[in-house]
Specification:
The protein is α/β, with parallel strands linked by helices. It has 23 helices and 29 strands. Helix 14 packs parallel to helix 16. The chain binds adenosine-5'-diphosphate and iron/sulfur cluster (SF4). Iron/sulfur cluster (SF4) binds next to helix 11 and helix 13.
């Protein structure tokens, strides 16, 4: 039964000619699959429909070939050929009464056109703005181009209608999308009637919405996603100017979709942004318009969602990441099962799928983007196979997820953990600066396990090979994790770094509570979050910290999770000295020998302790021990032994939850030999 405090979230509300069944609004989000994996993306959106979302959007859709953002894989609606794939998605979205929305994007100054090879066109000329400083400039749209662009939007709207969508979102936030580029003085330096005053800068969006209304307005709702603040002061489109714009054009779209002015700000990780972080920027805007308003803020708490609707700040609760982590969030709120919500942890691993051209993963929801490829459902498991019992050794993210998913399949599960607490690396990492929300990986699973009668959990149980051979479990899953190396072996060094007397601490040592004092050199050859987090920890503990890395950026890989800039800023604010493009070649008593990554030029850095953030070694001794005793398995009743997660190969937490889930899915599954373990879509050859 729905908690009466949350009932407001289930009141229907009109958006233009349509009515949304509730206030749960899945705003557009990338997924790494896009046009390359149409059936996978359609199935993913279909699962959200089943999960109760009232409105479900596509990712951004390139609406014309003259503006595309290769290598990022989104949707394309360039010609009629693109309609069937999008129709498949809209049909999946509408299966449970949700409204289906398509986001149309013309990227302008953000589109390098590496694929179409067209000369990019933007509001004003200038270098293309992407993550990679591409050596390409855009020319300015002339008046004929603007007329063409208006027609292309109408063409795209007509195709969207044919593709079965109910809503069109025009993209003008996050720094992306031609509408933001027209509105902002930072990207609009035109001297004609499209530039200068706010009235002039908003002319284009007024024209496009007018054209589209004439074309499809009778049956489609038109929404405008617009920047809340570009965060570059008066130079850009500020929050104050947004309010002026909405004040002047309150009834222009059928709904205002408010999102921050840069993607990094809007999709801020939990390390830097709280839930509902955009509330201040949104408050009061609804009073400027008679149209409904949607906003985002990594909402996972139905109390916060209901409050925002009740107090009149938002009409719809916009969610991207929370809908990825738990596609069934609305159904769970409706059924009064808020404690079952698998809350997004704000790690932005999902974003990295888009940034790397892979397919997105989610740390919390291993089935994300596997709905079609592997037939995985976020709430339902495949039926139990022929065996009955599984021993899972190690209660980190891999072991916890394996135990949870196995118990849903109906196996009798024993989960043995050497330590005093469940959670493995997550139990330790959640205590580091900014990472407390990551504890949700453990919290969700521990609670779910506590509700299952067929799972027994054993703490302080460091198992040996002999223990396992004596227990009689049919399947053994080794999820014993990994340890950070102290010897510096990672990418730069394939052999240990010579050390003649420098004390070295590893991330495991720091997480166990040890603290360096005095001058600390933190060497980061891992390049994800750990180096930056520990530099912050040591600085907070009063150390004089120098972060040395062979990379050109602090926490280099975190550019893929939209955190890198914020990490650098935070370290600078904490007084951490940052030394880039530099390795270490030797450790001595009282000093570190550094070397330029390009020239090899050496220097000495005085230090009292080195914190070594290099690579990790798998804790696979138990697995290897069991493999060496394979001859004894039959007598012990053992049918299978597998090693998963960090114990197989260390990786991010998302890799571990995926491994745990996959293990649970595949117990008792027939060997597939050389066949591909997932479905893929192969394009049909043209003539
Ligand atoms: P992953 O990320 O793959 O889940 P973690 O390092 O987070 O790995 O978790 C591994 C867990 O396994 C740790 O909590 C560790 O205490 C536990 N563990 C390691 N060896 C044993 C063992 N022999 N018996 C039981 N638990 C173990
Ligand atoms: Fe949230 Fe991380 Fe999942 Fe993205 S990958 S939806 S940020 S838990």
């Amino acid at each position: 039964m729905t908690d009466p405090r949350h009932e407001i979230l289930f009141t229907p509300l009109a958006i233009g000619p349509h009515v949304a069944k509730n206030r749960f609004y899945q705003v557009p989000h990338c997924n790494g699959g896009g046009y390359r994996d149409p059936s996978a993306v359609a199935a993913m959106r279909g699962v959200k429909a089943e999960g109760g979302w009232g409105v479900i959007f596509t990712e951004q859709t390139e609406m014309h070939h003259s503006s595309e953002i290769t290598p990022f894989i989104e949707q394309r609606l360039w010609e009629d050929q693109d309609i069937p794939a999008l129709r498949k998605m809209s049909e999946a979205m509408k299966t449970h009464g949700a409204l289906a929305g398509i986001q149309l994007a013309y990227s302008g100054i953000n589109g390098p056109n590496f694929y179409s090879r067209e000369v990019p066109m933007a509001v004003s000329p200038g270098p293309i703005r992407t993550f990679t400083n591409d050596p390409v400039q855009a020319r300015a749209l002339d008046k004929a181009d603007i007329r063409n662009l208006r027609r292309w939007f109408v063409n795209a709207a007509r195709r969207s209608k044919l593709a079965g969508f109910d809503l069109i979102c025009l993209y003008g936030a996050h720094g992306f999308g031609i509408f933001q580029h027209f509105l902002s003085r930072a990207t609009n330096q035109r001297g004609d009637e499209y530039g200068g005053s706010l009235e002039n800068r908003s002319r284009f969006v007024r024209e496009v919405i007018g054209d589209m209304r004439d074309a499809v307005g009778d049956c489609m709702a038109l929404t405008l996603r617009v920047s809340l603040d570009e965060t570059i002061g008066d130079l850009g489109f500020s929050n104050a100017e947004l309010r002026d714009f909405i004040g002047m054009n309150g009834d222009l779209p059928d709904l205002w979709d408010l999102a921050h002015g840069t993607w990094e700000e809007c999709s801020g990780p939990s390390r830097f942004k709280e839930e509902a972080a955009q509330e201040e920027l949104v408050r009061g805007i609804r009073e400027l318009t008679s149209r409904p308003v949607v906003g985002v803020g990594r909402f996972t708490s139905p109390d916060v969602m209901a409050r925002l609707v009740r107090q009149g700040t938002l009409d719809f609760i916009g969610c991207a990441r929370p809908s990825i982590a738990d596609p069934f969030l609305p159904v769970k709120v409706q059924e009064g099962r808020s404690e079952d919500i698998r809350e997004c942890i704000g790690c932005n691993i999902c974003v990295s799928g888009d940034m790397t051209g892979g397919i997105s993963r989610c740390t919390q929801n291993p089935s994300f983007m596997e709905e079609w490829r592997k037939g995985w459902h976020p709430e339902r498991m495949n039926p139990k196979g022929e065996s009955q019992s599984v021993l899972v050794v190690g209660a980190g993210p891999a072991g916890l997820e394996a135990a949870r998913a196995l118990s849903l399949r109906g196996y009798d599960v024993a989960l043995a953990e050497a330590g005093d607490a469940l959670g493995g690396r997550v139990a330790r990492e959640r205590l580091l600066p900014g990472l407390s929300a990551w504890g949700r990986v453990a919290d969700y699973r521990i609670y779910q396990l506590s509700q299952r009668a067929n799972v027994e959990t054993y703490l302080q149980s460091r198992l040996t090979v002999e223990d396992i051979l004596s227990f009689g479990f049919q399947n053994v899953c080794i999820a014993t994790g990994s340890q950070w190396r102290a010897d510096g072996v990672a990418r730069m060094h394939v052999a240990p770094v010579p050390n003649t007397g420098m004390p070295v601490l590893t991330p495991d040592d720091l997480m166990a509570g040890q603290r360096p004092t005095g001058r600390v050199v933190l060497f980061d050859d891992d390049h994800y979050y750990m180096g930056g987090v520990l530099a912050e920890l040591c600085a907070r503990a009063g150390c004089e910290v120098t972060l040395v890395t062979p990379a050109a950026f602090v926490s280099d890989w975190s550019r893929n999770t939209l955190e890198q800039g914020a990490i650098h800023r935070r370290l600078a604010a904490a007084g951490v000295k940052i030394v880039l493009n530099t390795g270490i070649t030797a450790l001595e008593a009282g000093a570190v020998v550094t070397a330029c990554a390009y020239t090899g030029a050496e220097a000495r850095l005085e230090a009292d302790t080195v914190v070594m953030v290099a690579s990790r070694t798998s804790d696979d001794a138990l697995y290897q021990g069991l493999m060496a005793r394979q001859a004894d398995w039959a007598d012990a009743g053992i049918r299978s032994v597998k090693v998963i997660g960090d114990a197989a190969a260390p990786g991010p937490i998302a890799w571990a939850t995926y491994a745990g889930h996959r293990y649970a899915r595949e117990v008792d599954m027939a060997e597939i030999g050389d066949a591909l373990p997932f479905r893929r879509e192969v394009v049909a050859l043209q003539g």
